[in-house]
Amino acid sequence: MAFIDYYKILGVDKSATKSDIKKAYRKLARKHHPDLNPNDKEAELQFKKVNEANEVLSNDENRKKYDKYGENWQHGEAYDQAQKQQEQQHQSQQHYQRSSGSQDFGDGEYSDFFESMFGGGFGNRPGNTKFRGQDFNAQLQLDLKDVYTSEKRVLTVNGKNIRLTIPAGITNGQIIKIKGKGGEGRNGGPNGDLLIEFNISNTTDFKRDGSNLYKTVNLDVYKSVLGGDVIIETFDSKVKLTIKPLTQNGTQVKLKGKGFPIYKKEGQFGDLVITYNIELPKKLSDKEKELFEELAKLQ
Amino acid sequence: MQNTHLIPIPSLCTHYQIEMSFFTGLNAYGLIEFISVEKTYCIHQDKIADVEKMIRLHQDLQLNYEGIDAVFNLLEKIDYLKSELITAQNKLKRFEDG
């Protein structure tokens, strides 16, 4: 537990007036307020620090106590007694330990330093109002294959097991809100929500855009010129496609309803778009070369 | 709309220890919408999270109704831009190698 320099936090010096402190607090509170910086842990921490600094420095009694003990806050009582003894006996042998290290702001409303010096907070601050608990944010890593069908999962968030049905077709970056599974409400207020962000990785041959899937299929030059049939894999099955003679490189074919499930629309699917990539032979036999030369002469 | 999903404003005043005038002000500025049930003004329970945010902005930052409105509009814009960014990033993946 380290000493916290509240003056430094508010960016004011020790001679600052109440009005200077109020002004500095309001400016920093506007900058770091969690409602203005959603999902920003750093802003939240800064806001707590600024709030605590204001709690101490805007209250005459607490500011006096803080200024009196300063960095010797850990030995405040001993310091008082020692001063009395010093006055009475004209001697002082006291030594005060100076703390160092990081400031200890946990998840609570106040730092350990504050709790130790002033107790659990003040009764007349707005914090006494009943407030809804904090929203919790969690991230869930899934593969594209995992979200092709609706899936039931049990997640453990802050030691609590939460059953969740992940609807098929959920997209990368999408957030699902689970009501009442966030932080506990303050002063009897309702619980916050749990916000789960889905990070969906794709290790398949398919590219996804919403509910549409895209795939590139290689065709040899003979099939692209003469036409024929190919079997291609869709996301969950195989289909036979007829290639028209003289199919050009980059030709696209849309397979309706063979794409990805549409989110929260059971039984509905997007399209699968196939792009043909014509592959030229990398090596020719003498006979093939001869035939190609004959073909070229016909042009 | 089921009445069980509506919360009477006087209950909110007691719960959050806030004067009725604050809520009537929010309603007058179009920040919340009162629903009248048997001569009692209510709001829908889904709006509670927004109302609490408004209370915090008002109490912590001394924002007036216009300020709260501006903040909500900007936060809405941020949300929209974030979702647009995610959609664009997802689209971009189609054209990336691998």
From TrEMBL, chain B:
Gene3D superfamilies: 1.10.1660.10. Pfam families: MerR_2. This is MerR-like DNA binding protein. It comes from Winogradskyella pacifica.
